[in-house]
Structure formats: structure tokens, C-alpha cells
Specification:
Largest interface: A-C, 76 and 48 residues
Structural class of chain A: alpha/beta
Largest sheet of chain C: 2 strands, antiparallel
Number of strands of chain A: 17
Strand order of the largest sheet of chain C: 2-3
Largest sheet of chain A: 6 strands, mixed
Oligomer: heterotrimer
CATH class of the domain at 122-279 in chain A: Alpha Beta
Strand order of the largest sheet of chain A: 1-14-13-17-15-16
Chains: A alpha/beta (441), B alpha+beta (287), C mainly alpha (332)
Order of helices and strands of chain C: EHHHHHHEEHHHHHHHHH
CATH superfamily of the domain at 122-279 in chain A: NADH-ubiquinone oxidoreductase 51kDa subunit
CATH topology of the domain at 122-279 in chain A: Rossmann fold
CATH architecture of the domain at 122-279 in chain A: 3-Layer(aba) Sandwich
Radius of gyration of chain C: 21 Å
Radius of gyration of chain A: 21 Å
Strand content of chain C: under 5%
Number of helices of chain C: 15
Chain lengths: 441, 287, 332
């Protein structure tokens, strides 16, 4: 069984919602669609207060190279463009729409028919993905059209599809692979065409045997696509670790995967590419897992972007009184929310609700130098050292010890027997080292 | 037995003498000739190595200032006027008068006035809390109350008020080294003119959100209503991005603006109590 | 509803703690303890208990009245120090020396540096080193093993196997003449020989080591590199002149090597953090041990070798970084 070599942990999986089919969540009364749902420059709104918008209509344009278009996820009137709290914990600009009767924008195919044929050129596909505002659905929300263009002088050999879902609890990708496998395969074929590669590998951890079986069977019908079972290990879903696991190549420090001839996309992205290219449907909804010990009915919802988190929690049984923490994303890398009206965005893969007992951190003790953090760090860094020198503000030393290679997977904090806030300290250090590097250039 | 003692004393003593001679020769040979004034200047400096001058410690400051031969661009905030004029004496220069400054915390969002809406857990530093979210009260500009400024202060001039969870500046100790200004991730602390008899008037809020939003999180936020701007006859108050700011160079300490502020965001410090005629007593004046 | 908690990721924590690690070490020490109780009887039990109790009591007193910080005597680290300290002394050691040794181990070895995690030297070895130098006679009077002994007095004492060989070679005798004076190798392996309480039984210590490896409390690097180095180094010397230098198997199953390699050198706090550093540390300990055993004044060198290498740990940590991900690109 393939997996990546250095480090890694195996947290308990808690995939309690894996048997729940994807349900369509009804629209809330208002949706607030943040303008910064992707990595890069926020989109610029093209609607104003009082405008009537249809579902799927463009409401904000990504003008910079690394940016993405944003479309309305509902039909209704723009009530205002204002600041709302998003999952960063701060107020950010968003378009707030009062929802009325649903009416789709012209040209969008909302049927379930599978369209296999795609006769568009490479350029057309990239343009379409760009127009429809597709971003990486795994959580990093990097604009997909950028990743589908191979830079000059580089050559892509493999398209790697991330169906790993290594975060505990989350099952949205799992359900998507099971229920939309055909669409997924067509989406991957389209991405392969755009990149000009003839090999695609779907990596799936072997804790999802049903998805593995279904995809393997289906892959025989599609040329060039193979499915690879992977040993369960966190953080296998991280780009560099996935490349190491699937094709045994190491992306050099500070470089992009294309350096070793690989492009990595999430299964959610492939599905979104399918819908965008074949059905003209912009990215206005996604599968969100609502799960955790404090959720009465763990579920997978097909949710419109901009739906407040509280409506998802209510749809799965409501908020229990001893709720301690609500997390957007998985338990290892997700962000704790400070408000329950935070809207679902393109990068929200799950909502995790845990009790106040679980929300407490373990008690803090001295570092006993057990070296567990060094052993499990998937980037082979020394978390204890990075945390210590960040705390002492010795940022040059932190840079020498490659603090910028840290991808904040949280394995070090997870494993630490003394409960040291290693990642908290490293984050502060990373921010300051990043500032230092920017000032130097 | 005596022989043993004798030999030990002789050999150890001999070794010591030899080492001393070698050390002396080496010291003479490799003597670094430097301006004796550097040492003199360093003597005068407070030796706190606070970095308030923007250089790496007092020695570095002394070296630079002697090399430059001018005091322009050099200032030792903790040493203040006296130190600088003494440094000037060593260098044979004149020194310009500089106004004494003091750190001012421009946030009054205490636990009582801006009640926490969330619990914070993890690394107890403002830098981290700032990177994580807007803060317990929900105000993205307000004090996070983890005390990075207190930790940064090398002169015991700050402490955390346990009741309000806000930092307090002890004016007598503050030397205006700006360490806290740099430590605060939200730029809440400002260096302001100390003023006559330490009297100061300032807006104790830096929230640039719209009035309604700011007020929802904090009872003493500046809501950008502009009444103080109208009240000020000296054009010392400017209103920008829903936030009033008092220019300490223009402010004449006339005490007209604090009473008109509807939220009590304008603070006055070290003034005698107002006459009872005035209706609006500034509640936090004594804070 | 209570307030929502906001904290940085990760929001999940592994089911481990300092206490679990420490009690894991204690569990792994059980076989060695039982074997020593069997061979050295009541004396061993009393000395071990004294060491454990005095270590815990000293730690409690210092944390409560000197440091005035939180009291962490229940995390098990003081108990481990006590047990390991007792393992390093003869079973007929006067108890007051044991108490003084415990005081030095906890006080000078650990608490002066700020408690668990901050000490540069292994506290048990600091205590042992102190006792070895201050009370050399009592510390080197090893009783002969008498299975199930319940007597406290009148035990027969004698030098350890290593001591016999060292003294003999020192007098110019040949190794082949000395071998009949030491116990059989199987006895040495099981622990039926004179020596410190816990160091005698190689098999019990290896069992405990395997348990710690399984529980992932230690990694293989230090014990393996340490023992391998001793084996290779003494092997080379043995090949050069088997009449002066005894064979390598004898070296690894006698003395405190097993105890040192498995429990002392692997002490998390005082060993390096990176795999490469751990290997270097093990090799360094091995070389120093053999040098002291063969050329030094003491027949046994494990504890001083480890103490010396402890001092190099910060340097090793600095010099031997792990090979970073993506540092050297091998494609294909």
C-alpha cells in the first residue's frame, strides 16, 4: 500500500456521516456571499444595492490573475453590500441577497443528464473554468484556472486527483465520489485535456472501500485514469505528501508541484469543472459535511454558497446546549468560528460541532524533549525548535530552520504529550518571517 | 610534604605568570583603537538596550552617534532630554529641545464595556490572537488583552488591569521607548505629547467600523458622529473612516470635546475635577 | 448556551500525555525490578523503596516551598528517577547514602534547572555520579546474588564481573585465566551475578526496552547504536589481543550497559531530538564507555559516558538536522 514516507500521524477517523447520502439543503431567507472566497485578490462586485439577480448570475468579477469570479447562489434582490464575519474571524465585504423564488440564469443546464462528450479546446476549457469561478475545493481555494495552465517551459506529466480526505470526521468528498462518480470521471478527463496530460491518478485512502471499488470499476471505461488505494495517514491530502505517495517525487522546498511534472486537484474541483464545462453551471453550491459529537443527525448537505452555518446545524438537529466549539473544516486544520452566521464559502468542506469538554485543550506542561514532533513532522522540520525560537522572536534563525516550509497541518500539536501550543507559536513565527522576507525583497 | 607544597605553588604560580604575560602581549598586539568618546557616550546612556532608538542596543547607538558626529536622527527615548544634552556635551554639540512623550492606550473596551462573546484558548499572546480572529468582544480594532505590550516593556511602566483586562501605563516610569507600540499587533498604543502637568486629551478608540457596528460590540467606541469635530475651535480633531483623531500638536487642552462625546470615547487625563455645573461628567476620566 | 471557544487548529489531540509516557516507562521497568528483587532480596526492595520515596518527597518539598510552582509529583518522573537511581547502586547501600543521593539527583540534577524537561543531565546519573565519587567504598561493595534472600546482613560481597577482569588484567593476568572467576555467560545474561540492583539482568532490561519500543516511548536509534558501538569497538580490541581484552559479548551483557543503553541514554529530556543526532549520541556513548572500561580508572564507564554525552546534546541538536522534505530531489 502506498503512502508518503516522512512523518505523519493517524488520528481516530470518526467518519460518522459516511453512510448519509447527500441531501439538498433548502435555501435560507438571505444569503451573504463573501467577495474573498479564494486565495488571492478579492473579487470586485458588479451588482449594486437593489439589483435583481438570478441564480448563477455573475455578481463579482475576479480581475487580477489570481482571483476568481463569484456568482449568485440564489435568486433575489441585493439588499446591501456590507461587511459580514467570515471564517477568518473578521468582517469582510460580502454581497447580501434577499432570496425570492428560484429562477436560473439562462444557459445553465440544471438537469441530471450525464454529458460525456467535450469538444472544447484547451484554451476554451480554461476560460470556462475561469468564468465559472472554480477554485480548489479542498480548502486552500486556489483559483483552478491558474492551476490548469501549465507555465511556459514546464511540462505536466500527471494529473493527481485528491480523494484522500485525510481529515477525521469529514465525508463530503467520500460521498461525492460515491454518488457522482461518472461526472467526476468526465471532469477529470476534461482537466486532463486542458493540461495536455494522458495520465491521471485518483488517490483514495483505503478507509473508503466502497468509493475505491466503484471508481476502480468505472476507471476502466476512461482512458488514462487509474485509481490508487493509499494507506490511511494524515496529512496525505496535502499536495506535496500526495505527490510523494502517488508518484514518489518530492516537490522542492518553496516550489510548486509543476516543478516535478504534477498538478493536483481535489475531487470536488473535478466535479465542479464538469458542471462548469458541460453544464455551464458556475460554482454556487458544494457538499458540506455537518458532523461532530454535538450534532444530532450527522449529514452531508448540498449547500448553496452563502448559507449561514447556523442553518446547516439546524437542519441536522439544532445546536445542543453544551456546544463548545464550531469549526469550519476538519478538526486538524479547520478554523474555529466566532459567530454562527458565518456563511458557507467555496472552501467550506465541513462544519464540525463539538462539546465544550472536547473543546478544551489538554493541560500545558514543560516540553520533555520527547522528539515526537520531530518524528511525525511530514516536512521533516523541528517543530519544538521553531516554536521556541518564534516565541523568542529569533526570526532569522527560524528562517534558517525553514519555518516557511511548515504547512500548518497541526500534527505536532496533535501528538505533543505536554500539550504545547506548537502550531500557535509557529504561526506567529511564520507570519513574522514572511513579513521579514517581504521587507527584504 | 613540604616539597609537594613548594612544587605545587611554584608550578601553578609560574603557569599563572606565564599566562598573564602572554595575555598582556596579545592584548597589546591586537589592541583595537577606537574613539574613546564611544565609551563615554555609552556611560551616559541608560544601558537598558531597549532598542527605542531603533538601533541594536546602547553600544550600537554610541558607536553610530560618535561616527556621525551629529545628533540629527538620533534620540534616546528612555534617557530623554537630560541624556541627550549630556551626549551632546561629550560630542561638543548643541541639542534641540524635544517634547517628552508618553505611551497612551487608545482602547477602553474593558470586559465590562465590551463583553466577551467567545472564549479564547491557546497561546496567550496578542500576536497569535490577532492572527486568529477579531477578538473576544468582536471588535476587530480593540485590545485583545493578552498583554504583549506589558511583556515588551523593559521599564515596568505597564501592567494588566485584572478587572478590565486592559493594559495601564504608569506615566512616571514610561520613557517613550516605543517598545509597546511595536509589540501591539493592532497599533492601539500611541506615543503622545506628555503635556503640561501630564494633562492629555485623546480619543480612546481606534475602531474604523461604522458607528452601529462598533457600538454593538463596545459601549465606549467612537461612532464617528463628528460632534467633537464641530466643537473644536482649533481644528485639532479630524474625522476619517468613522474615527475621530485629536492631533496633540494642535490641541490646546481646552476640555470642550470630552463632554460632547455621546459614548464617552474622548478621555481627559490628570485634569482637576470639573465643576458640578457641567452635566456630562466624563466617567472614565479618572481611569 | 456557553460561549463558543475560539482556538487555533488542530482541534483534536492525541491520547497521550507526559504522565502516560512516564507510567509506560515504569511498567517496562517491572521485569528488571522483579529479577533484582529475586536475586538481591529484601535489601534491594528496601533500597529501591527508599530511593523512590525520597525522590518523590524531595521533589514535592522543592516544588512546594522553593520553586513555589505547581506540584507535579504525580507525573511519574520523580518515581522513575528514584527507581533508576536505585538500579545503579548495590543492594546493601546504607540507606542514608541513598537519601543523600536522591536529594542530589532531584535537587541538583533536576530542580535547579527548572524541573522536568529543563535538565541537561540525566538526574539519576547525576545522583549516581555524586555517590560514586563521595562514597566510593560503599558504592563498589557489591553483594553476591542469593536468590530469594530475606536477610539484610552478612551477605557475601565481591567485585563485579567487569571488576574482576579489569583488576586481573591490571595485575598482568591473562583473560583466559580470569574467565573461570566470572559467572557463566548464561548467568550473566539472566542476571545471576554481583552488581548494582537493576543492571544485572540483560534479558529483563531487553524485555522492558521492547515494551517501550512497542509503545513508541523510545526509538531504536540510541540503544542499537550504543550497544553496536560497544560491540564493534570491544570486538576490534579483542581481535587485536584476546589475552588482554575480553570478548565483546562479555562487554555487552555485563555491567550497566543494557540499563544505560535502554533506560539512561534514551531519557527523552537529555537525549538529542533528531534521528541522526540520536545515532551520533549512541555512538559517542559507546566509544566513551569502552574507553573508560578499557583504559580508564573505573571498571565501568556507562554512567560517566552518558553524562559526558548529555553535555553535547545541544551541540548535536544544532549540528544534525533531519533531512527536510524536498531538500534533495530524487525523481523517478
Amino acid at each position: 500500500m502506498k503512502t508518503f514516507k516522512i512523518g505523519g500521524v493517524h488520528p481516530p477517523e470518526y467518519k460518522i456521516s459516511e453512510k448519509q447520502p447527500i441531501e439538498v439543503l433548502s435555501l435560507p431567507e438571505t444569503v451573504s456571499i463573501p467577495l474573498a472566497q479564494h486565495l488571492g485578490v478579492p473579487a470586485v462586485p458588479v451588482v449594486k444595492k437593489g439589483d435583481k439577480v438570478k441564480t448563477g448570475q455573475l455578481i463579482a468579477k475576479g480581475e487580477a490573475f489570481i482571483s476568481a469570479n463569484i456568482h449568485s447562489s440564489a435568486t433575489g434582490t441585493v439588499s446591501k453590500i456590507d461587511d459580514v464575519i467570515d471564517d477568518s474571524g473578521y468582517r469582510k465585504k460580502a454581497v447580501i441577497i434577499k432570496v425570492e423564488n428560484e429562477q436560473w440564469e439562462d444557459g445553465i443546464d440544471t438537469s441530471d443528464n450525464l454529458i460525456k462528450e467535450c469538444n472544447l479546446t484547451q484554451e476554451d476549457i480554461v476560460n470556462k473554468v475561469n468564468q465559472m469561478g472554480i477554485v480548489g475545493m479542498g480548502g486552500a481555494t486556489f483559483p483552478s484556472h491558474v492551476k490548469l495552465q501549465v507555465p511556459k517551459g514546464k511540462k505536466a506529466e500527471y494529473l493527481l486527483i485528491n480523494g484522500v480526505e485525510c481529515e477525521p470526521y469529514l465525508t463530503s468528498d467520500h460521498r461525492l465520489m460515491l454518488e457522482k462518480s461518472h461526472e467526476l470521471m468526465v471532469g477529470i478527463t476534461i482537466q486532463m485535456k486542458a493540461l495536455g496530460v494522458d495520465k491521471a491518478i485518483i488517490g483514495v485512502e483505503n478507509n473508503k472501500p466502497d468509493a475505491l471499488e466503484k471508481l476502480s470499476k468505472l476507471a476502466k471505461e476512461f482512458k488514462g485514469i487509474t485509481v490508487e488505494p493509499l494507506k490511511v495517514k494524515y496529512p496525505q491530502g496535502a499536495e506535496k505528501q500526495l505527490i510523494k505517495a502517488l508518484v514518489n517525487r518530492e516537490v522542492p522546498s518553496g516550489k510548486l508541484p509543476i516543478e516535478v511534472g504534477c498538478v493536483v486537484h481535489n475531487v470536488g474541483t473535478s466535479f465542479a469543472v464538469y458542471e462548469a464545462v458541460q453544464k455551464n453551471k458556475p460554482l454556487i453550491e458544494r457538499v458540506v459535511t455537518v458532523t461532530g459529537s454535538n450534532v444530532k443527525k450527522p449529514s452531508n448537505f448540498l449547500t448553496r454558497i452563502g448559507t449561514p452555518v447556523i442553518s446547516l446545524i439546524e437542519a441536522s438537529g439544532g445546536l445542543l446546549p453544551n456546544t463548545g466549539k464550531v469549526i469550519s473544516g476538519g478538526p486538524m486544520m479547520g478554523k474555529a468560528l466566532n459567530d454562527l452566521n458565518v456563511p458557507v464559502t467555496k472552501g467550506t468542506s465541513g462544519i464540525l460541532v463539538i462539546s465544550d469538554y472536547e473543546a478544551q485543550r489538554v493541560s500545558l506542561q514543560n516540553c520533555i524533549r520527547c522528539a515526537k514532533c520531530v518524528t511525525i513532522c511530514p516536512m521533516a522540520l523541528e517543530p519544538y525548535l521553531l516554536a521556541l525560537i518564534s516565541d523568542k522572536q529569533r526570526y532569522e534563525e527560524a528562517e534558517e530552520n525553514q519555518i516557511m516550509d511548515c504547512m500548518e497541518c497541526g500534527s505536532c500539536h496533535y501528538i505533543c504529550p505536554s500539550g504545547r501550543p506548537l502550531l500557535d507559536q509557529i504561526r506567529v513565527g511564520k507570519a513574522n518571517v514572511g513579513k521579514m522576507i517581504r521587507e527584504r525583497n | 610534604m613540604n616539597e609537594v607544597v613548594l612544587y605545587s605553588v611554584l608550578s601553578i604560580g609560574g603557569l599563572g605568570t606565564l599566562a598573564a604575560i602572554i595575555l598582556y602581549i596579545v592584548a597589546q598586539r591586537f589592541k583595537v583603537i577606537e574613539d574613546p568618546r564611544i565609551d563615554e557616550v555609552e556611560e551616559i546612556l541608560p544601558a537598558a538596550n531597549c532598542g527605542g532608538c531603533g538601533l541594536a542596543g546602547c553600544r550600537n547607538f554610541a558607536e553610530r552617534v560618535v561616527k556621525a558626529g551629529t545628533l540629527e536622527g538620533f534620540n534616546c527615548p528612555p534617557g530623554g532630554q537630560d541624556t541627550m544634552s549630556e551626549v551632546a556635551k561629550v560630542l561638543g554639540l548643541e541639542v534641540e529641545e524635544q517634547e517628552p512623550m508618553v505611551a497612551v492606550v487608545r482602547c477602553s473596551g474593558s470586559v465590562q464595556l465590551a463583553p466577551p462573546k467567545t472564549k479564547f484558548e491557546g497561546l496567550n499572546t496578542c500576536a497569535f490572537a490577532h492572527s486568529l480572529y477579531s477578538g473576544q468582544s468582536g471588535c476587530p480594532y480593540g485590545c485583545l488583552g493578552e498583554g504583549d505590550c506589558v511583556v515588551s516593556c523593559a521599564f515596568d511602566a505597564m501592567y494588566m488591569d485584572e478587572n478590565t483586562r486592559l493594559p495601564v501605563v504608569i506615566e512616571e516610569n514610561c520613557v517613550a521607548c516605543e517598545a509597546c507600540v511595536k509589540a501591539c499587533p493592532r497599533d492601539i498604543i500611541e506615543m503622545r505629547k506628555k503635556g503640561k502637568k501630564s494633562r492629555r486629551i485623546f480619543v480612546s478608540c481606534i475602531n474604523r467600523e461604522k458607528g452601529g457596528v462598533a457600538r454593538k460590540n463596545c459601549k465606549v467606541a467612537c461612532i464617528g458622529c463628528g460632534r467633537c469635530v464641530k466643537e473644536c475651535k482649533f481644528e485639532a480633531i479630524t474625522l476619517e473612516n468613522n474615527l475621530a483623531y485629536i492631533d496633540f500638536n494642535k490641541c490646546t487642552l481646552c476640555r470642550k470635546c470630552p463632554p460632547v462625546c455621546p459614548t464617552g470615547a474622548i478621555h481627559e487625563l490628570n485634569f482637576p475635577a470639573r465643576k458640578p455645573k457641567q452635566k456630562k461628567e466624563d466617567k472614565s476620566a479618572e481611569a | 448556551m456557553s460561549l463558543l471557544t475560539v482556538s487555533g487548529s488542530p482541534h483534536l489531540h492525541a491520547d497521550n500525555s507526559v504522565r502516560k509516557i512516564m507510567y509506560g516507562v515504569l511498567i517496562s521497568l517491572i521485569p528488571a525490578t522483579l529479577v533484582s528483587f529475586y536475586f538481591f532480596g529484601l535489601g534491594a526492595i528496601i533500597v529501591t523503596l527508599t530511593a523512590v520515596v525520597s525522590c518523590v518527597v524531595f521533589e514535592f518539598l522543592m516544588q512546594k516551598y522553593l520553586v513555589k510552582g505547581p506540584v507535579t509529583i504525580f507525573d511519574g518522573s520523580a518515581i522513575i528517577t528514584g527507581v533508576l537511581l536505585a538500579f545503579n547502586v548495590p543492594s546493601n547501600l546504607p540507606l542514608w547514602i541513598m537519601v543523600v543521593g536522591s536529594f542530589v539527583a532531584i535537587g541538583m540534577g533536576k530542580m535547579t534547572f527548572g524541573g522536568l524537561g529543563k535538565n541537561p543531565f540525566n538526574p539519576a546519573l547525576v545522583g549516581r555520579g555524586f555517590m560514586m565519587i563521595s562514597f566510593p567504598v560503599q558504592m563498589t561493595t557489591w553483594p553476591k546474588p542469593i536468590p530469594m534472600n530475606t536477610q539484610l546482613t552478612d551477605v557475601v560481597t565481591g567485585p563485579t564481573a567487569l571488576g574482576v577482569v579489569k583488576d586481573g588484567v591490571g595485575r598482568g593476568e591473562k583473560v583466559s585465566e580470569l574467565l573461570p572467576q566470572v559467572p557463566e555467560y548464561t548467568d550473566l545474561f539472566i542476571g545471576n551475578m554481583g552488581g548494582s540492583i537493576g543492571e544485572v539482568s540483560a534479558i529483563a532490561l531487553i524485555l522492558g526496552g521492547l515494551y517501550m519500543l512497542l509503545r513508541k516511548i523510545i526509538t531504536w536509534h540510541i540503544p542499537v547504536s550504543y550497544i553496536a558501538t560497544v560491540f564493534v569497538f570491544t570486538g576490534i580490541m579483542w581481535l587485536i589481543n584476546p589475552e588482554v581484552y575480553i570478548d565483546p559479548v562479555f562487554h555487552i551483557i555485563t555491567g550497566g550497559l543494557m540499563l544505560g543503553a535502554i533506560y539512561m541514554a534514551t531519557d527523552m529530556v537529555t537525549s538529542p531530538m533528531t534521528p541522526a543526532g540520536m545515532l551520533i549520541f549512541g555512538v559517542g556513548c559507546g566509544v566513551l564507555t569502552v574507553v573508560i572500561r578499557l583504559f580508564g580508572a573505573y571498571p565501568e564507564g556507562v554512567s560517566f559516558a552518558i553524562l559526558i554525552m548529555n553535555a553535547f546534546v545541544p551541540l548535536i541538536d544544532r549540528g544534525f538536522k533531519p533531512k527536510r522534505f524536498g531538500e534533495e530531489v530524487k525523481n523517478g
